[in-house]
Amino acid sequence: MDNLSVMSIRVDHRTDSAPKMQEILTKNGDIIIGRFGIHDPGEVDHGLITLNLRGDMGRIRGMADSLEALDGIKVNHMQA
């Protein structure tokens, strides 16, 4: 069953983590129904991405685990 949920991704040291993180997000693009990214202009090395997701919870957990395995990435997930 497909579930709606929200995931936030805090990216520290964006220049180091961003390419691999983007690869994971692209691989899972079919379950991402919305994406919003911001960075703090006073803090160039940090960013926040919010994802709206629709998909199987096992797949969403797998994506979260892959992201968490990257240096400088923190993931929070909330099921709607």
UniProtKB/TrEMBL annotation:
Gene3D superfamilies tied to this protein: ACT-like. Chain A, domain 2 (3.30.70.1150)
Pfam families, per the entry: TM1266-like
InterPro entries: Acetolactate_synth/TF_NikR_C, ACT-like_dom_sf, FeFe-hyd_TM1266
Name this polypeptide is given: Uncharacterized protein
